[in-house]
Amino acid sequence: MKRKLIVSFSGGETSAFMSQWLWQHKSQEYEMQFVFANTGEEREETLEFIQQCSDYFGFPVTWIECEPESKTKYTIVDFFTASRRGEPFEKVIRKYGIPNIALPHCSRELKEVPITAFSKKIFRKHYSTAIGIRSDEVDRISPYAQKKKLIYPLISGGFHPGVNKVEVNLFWSKMPFRLRLKGYEGNCKWCWKKSLKKLLRIAKDDPAAFNFPLRMEKQFGNYIPPNRVSLLQQKGKSIALPITFFRNHISAEEILLSARSANPIIRDDNRIYTQQTTIPFIDFGDTDFVGGDSCEIFSDCR
């Protein structure tokens, strides 16, 4: 009997590399369900890339969106019906408030909860979950991986021998298509876990990417759900109003205003095809909370 495997496909190139590799090399060993949790704030290029991967490599992807007020916790959509104006994200904000570094519940509620609910409906309790983290991202492995039955095929023994960012780039450079995004853009249009430098670059290039956080901060900046008050009290943290998404209590409006006069230079690491032999310079002003090009479930990017 085949073992059961949920493959979490985030829409990034590393996650896509893992998905196609598992489909080609482990289909005889595992019964797989590929799943993508759409937040409504993914870039259109990400949605197109997911569909292209499914069509080209042949693995079926189930698209889901969170339903925080329903018993099922998710609804099934597809490329054509998937939300593109932040609707799932807004539902989470209405229930839990604006996420930020103090209470980073967005990945949990938008991705982990619906994917877990979907997985249990399909496989009950007898399954593992594959996460697309590379060998150069081992610091993002969940400390609860064994308890939650998480596997990392691009790191773990018995699967792929290991792959890093350059090797993933080389693979996609030889494909007839790839994710049409710069490395710093990521799948989420404006992820608050990105460094200010990257957010300013994104806001400079595409101010409309910040329409959703701008609207949410205006609409829910002074909204404090009861569960948020109790959680912050447990952590011994206070609430500064208005609540914003971004680090250091910066608002989406402030980012957009600052971007007008800023011109940060960001390296596109999706186009690096040679291994570094020297220790790279680390710009501590350009450090993300997110370790990769996408926010993987159960990873250290939460």
Instruction: Write down the Rg.
Output: 19 Å
Annotated CATH topology of the largest domain? Rossmann fold
Average pLDDT for all residues: 91
Strand content: 5-15%
Number of helices: 9
- Spatial arrangement of strands, main beta sheet: 4-3-2-1-5-6
Estimated structural class: alpha/beta
What is the number of independent domains? 2
Low-confidence stretches: none
CATH architecture of the largest domain: 3-Layer(aba) Sandwich
**Which CATH first-tier class of the largest domain would you pick?**
Alpha Beta
The N- to C-terminal Cα distance equals: 35 Å
Strand tally: 6
Sketch the topology as an H/E string, one letter per element. EHEHEEHHEEHHHHH
Shape: globular
CATH fourth-tier homologous superfamily of the largest domain: HUPs
Q: Tell me the major beta sheet.
A: 6 strands, mixed
Question: Which range best describes the helical content: under 10%, 10-25%, 25-40%, 40-55%, 55-70% or over 70%?
Answer: 25-40%
Can you describe what's shown?
The chain has 302 residues and is of the alpha/beta class. It is 34% helix and 10% strand. The protein contains 9 helices and 6 strands. Strands 4-3-2-1-5-6 form a 6-stranded mixed β-sheet. β1, α1 and β2 (30-37) form a beta-alpha-beta unit. α6 (196-205) crosses α9. The model has no long low-confidence stretch (mean pLDDT 91). Residues 5-78 form the Phosphoadenosine phosphosulphate reductase domain.
